[in-house]
Amino acid sequence: MNESLTNRQIAFIIFGVLVGYGVMGLPKNVAENTGTGGWFTLLIATIITMVITYMLTYLSYVHKNKTIYEYSQLLTGKVVTYIFMILYIFYYFLVFSMLGRISCETIKLSILLKTPVWALSFVFFSISYYALTKRLRVIARLCEIYGVIIIFASVMMYLAIFTQGKLVNIKPFFILEDLPVYMKASVKLIFPFLGIEILTIIPFDKKNGKNVFKYTIFMVAFIGLFYILVAESCISVMGVDGIIHYNDALLATIRRTDIKSLQFVRRLDGIFLVIWTMAIFCTMIIWAYGGVLLLSKWFKKIPFNLLSFTVVFLAYIVSLIPSTFDQVQKILDYMGYYGFVCIIVIPSILFFITKVKKYDKKM
Amino acid sequence: MIRKCSKLLILCIFLLILTSCWDYEDIDKKCINVSVGVDVVDDKIEFSGEIAQLTPSAESQEKSQVAGVYTVLAYGKTFEEARTNYDSLNPFSTFLGATRVVVFGQNYAKQGIKPYLYRINYIYDYRKTILPVVCREGPKELFKVKIERDIAVGFLIEDILNHLASSGRAIYPTVGELISYVEAGSGCYVIPYIGIEKNEIKYLGLAVMKESKLIGVINLKETYGILYILAEKPRIIEVIDYNKNKISFRTVVKKRKIQTNYKNEKVSIKIDIDLKAEMRYQYVQKPVTDKDIKELEKILSEKVKNDVMKAIQKAQNEFECDYFQFEKYFKAKYPKIYKKMKWEEIFPKADIAVMVKTKIVNKSLADPNAKKKY
Hints:
The structure holds 2 protein chains of 2 kinds.
Chain A: H1 7-18, H2 22-34, H3 38-62, H4 68-76, H5 78-110, H6 117-133, H7 135-164, H8 179-188, H9 211-238, H10 240-243, H11 249-255, H12 269-298, H13 304-319, H14 325-356, H15 359-362
Chain B: H1 2-17, H2 20-23, E1 30-41, E2 44-52, H3 58-62, E3 69-76, H4 79-89, E4 93-95, E5 101-105, H5 106-111, H6 114-122, E6 131-135, H7 139-142, H8 153-166, H9 175-184, E7 189-197, E8 200-210, E9 213-219, H10 223-230, E10 235-242, E11 245-263, E12 266-282, H11 290-319, H12 326-333, H13 335-340, H14 343-346, E13 351-362
């Protein structure tokens, strides 16, 4: 099946996978790590991610019509590839299941108090399965449509939040003496960019051309600016001292704003939750697709839909195992460190081998 | 065919387990709180409140009126106990998402409203944009007042303060803002103070809160100086005595700049206010020359400066409480020095200077220099 995507679709896949649950606690993490200078730290984190994105795009660009499963075999051999694949499959699977669970927990804690998590998860996971059976191109189209809606609605919303905030809350913008702190914290703020490694399972073809670099790198830069907008707008309302107490910093800020001049949309939480659910949905299906695709490469004889069903079903079961919100949060925190291997270490190894063995010239 | 049926089946399953089913409740099966009152009476928490009456009573049906509100009162040693008792009186489960106002009684406000602010902050259905007010008479008495000008006491208080704040003559803080003040520093702030006068509910001024405890009240006239610094867009009516005449002006703050400085371990604060003034009318119509305008600008500036200075001095000397939030400005400029100091001790000793520049921009289309021909 032809799974190639247009450059724009690739860019929106990146947006879909990156912007999801992470934005909820982003302002808190920024304020906690670097206070009001957080925008600068986010900027550094964005630049680092842009470099990683370049590497990942390069790998797919050089190895046309191949995913990491194929080009890793070419570069490192079968044994190492299997180790890599196990790491990736386990990673995608766990993030998919925990992301589903934590999103449902957040929805339960914030709007649907009486609805059990298993019911919420059931809906989320079932729809994810349905989307998965339609494969990458449909998922990409979905991300494209949802992405535009999410970007438009959220940028409007965060700008509206700014009108309720106070400039003094986001000052001082930059403290020169804190530069080492900003640099150090940038590593921690790379976590919201986890997911960019999805590029390794998107096969590029000739049509993508060199322009794909522009699209992927520009999208990461845009997401970085988007994150800065999210963090700064929330801090301008809540202040750095307040926001650190809220795991759901973004929702807490939105619930503190009431824009009288907007009349029928004066309470933003309704819009926010719809947009956020759309973003979560995109993120979940892309993570799930990553896992299922790599599995399907491995178990070629098993139909893709059956694999999808098994993965989604297992993920649903696994998502219900942790008993509390805190446990899920902890697992996701650890997944962040694990993600470091998948986002930086493995792609870097493959990138350098490609360069050293001069595959880029051979292709 | 089978494929289509399977899709229909999936849709039916979704409909059945649709997540909102668990949370769904008919609106007339809920007690919708319009306002909440909290006070302390005989060491017990007193919860009072207005609940929207969605089904009109027999009496109101006769009068063919729309449904109004009924009041509920409950007591308990803790919030939880009082709430349990409160719920025991209600026919349906309470919905707090429509609450407009939280009224604190003086007794409770003196003990500190912080716990209740946190309660609002963390209870899911409360809006964080509720208006907090302190009431002189106690919420129980307040909710007894018969309202003719609005639907309920809660609505009336919200509407009064909303129109005053939008015209720049009062502040409209929200619970969310107060929580930010508490989380950021010493918990010094001012909130609207209301009371009953001649059986009417009236805005009386501002309640001063230190560490979220009521420590004093500023009467309405003295609030103007505060509004010049705190209100979003202050528009205040000033009357100037000039040449045996009185002239009425409406002042609007065009620009407000607060600068803090730290030199020789001393904090100084400089406030620059640029005012625009409109001459509304004169008590006796007299010609106004350019020289008069310049003189009036000077007098107005001086008057506003004095009002603001008085308000600041009151905060520094009488209340020792920075409800102007100068702390935030200092912290933004000197975060490291701020960390080492105790602002509550520094603020009363800080040098504060106020500069006011006024420009009279129009005379409301009146020509005080019109020449008579005959």
